[in-house]
Design brief:
By secondary structure, this protein is mainly alpha-helical. The protein contains 2 helices and no strands.
Length: 90
């Protein structure tokens, strides 16, 4: 199971990078009108708000990823793999 969790962690790292890049590109595109109007006076509030939302979304993404991945890994190692080993012995 240790090897499976290592593979899952490697996948998580790449998905986290993809999630981060996609989020920041999306947020700039989504709020571009506000950036043009209010960036000179309220840039700190924009950056802090975006960062808080990013952290919340990233934590939710991480929790969902690891719950689903853990369930799938445990299911594979406790149900599927022993079943395949028994069928090979017959």
């Amino acid at each position: 199971m240790k090897a499976s969790f290592r593979k899952a962690f490697r996948i998580f790292k790449y998905l986290a990078i993809l999630f981060t890049v996609a989020y920041w590109i999306y947020i700039v595109i989504d709020d571009y009108v506000f950036i043009e109007k209010y960036w000179e006076t309220q840039w700190f509030s924009y950056l802090s708000g975006w960062t808080v939302f990013f952290l919340v979304y990233f934590v939710v993404f991480s929790v969902y990823f690891w719950i689903i991945t853990s369930i799938l890994i445990f299911f594979y190692h406790k149900v599927i793999k022993p079943f395949n080993d028994r069928s090979r012995l017959s």
